[in-house]
DNA sequence: GATAAACATAAGCCATGACTTATGCGATTC
DNA sequence: GAATCGCATAAGTCATGGCTTATGTTTATC
């Protein structure tokens, strides 16, 4: 009976822990993309992209849309909800000034 | 010149991706703890705990306080700021109703 | 000052992960 | 309908990760 419940947070953290895979996720923030178009943006093989997408999909972070022989992937941002929730839980421990730091960091990112 | 800049997000995601290590972090939310006290809460060896703490510390998620031969660790919740910032960036993509889902999830966690 | 306690570090083991090339499979094109 | 395209899956390789059992190292105890 051990380990009956998989922790979705683990899947999400793991999916986003790899820099390439996280970059794929971030790319998709620009809009829906086919696997081939996505592959063109990275220095890895097509199977590698497919494998990353499968991991992101399993974590609930992207969704697939089939159209003929093409597969289009787009963000499933609601998949981040458990992650946001997890972080939120520890926001209670933050000193007030951290809120400002967070805003600064937000501004820093492209 | 490649890979000069380490991504702090990667360290944070990686640190929290392991269930045991994340559990250690969550434990520390209950308050400062010595390594020995922490070890008593988990079914792993003392070196394993020390290694997890080292990873969390390297990611900026906990801080160490030395007192004689004891080492006390406590949360550095501000270390979550880059993570919160990262999530925040994609909150823009969320549908409105997700905010409610997040609250539900928050209520579910112990 | 020798012993023990609390913790960190070293070294080794085994599983997993991220990548590759090779292959399969449905959809299109000729 | 044979060849090609777009993608997924299989299989293999190499590096990394998390764990273990030693082995320090520093501080307290006798």
Automatic annotation (TrEMBL), chains A, B:
Can you provide one Gene Ontology molecular function annotated for this UniProt record? DNA binding
Gene source species: Kaistia hirudinis
| A Pfam family per the record | HTH_20
Keywords carried by this UniProt record: DNA-binding, Transcription, Transcription regulation
Residues covered by the HTH arsR-type domain: 1-95
This chain belongs to the protein called DNA-binding transcriptional ArsR family regulator
């Amino acid at each position: 009976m051990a380990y009956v419940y998989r922790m979705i947070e683990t899947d999400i953290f793991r999916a986003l822990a790899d820099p390439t895979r996280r970059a794929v996720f971030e790319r998709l923030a620009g809009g829906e993309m086919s696997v081939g178009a996505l592959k063109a943006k990275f220095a890895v093989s097509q199977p590698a992209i497919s494998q990353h997408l499968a991991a992101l999909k399993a974590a609930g972070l992207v969704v697939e849309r089939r159209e003929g022989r093409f597969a289009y992937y787009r963000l499933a941002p609601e998949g981040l909800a458990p992650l946001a929730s997890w972080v939120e839980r520890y926001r209670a421990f933050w000193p007030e000034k951290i809120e400002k730091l967070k805003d600064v960091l937000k501004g820093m990112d492209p």
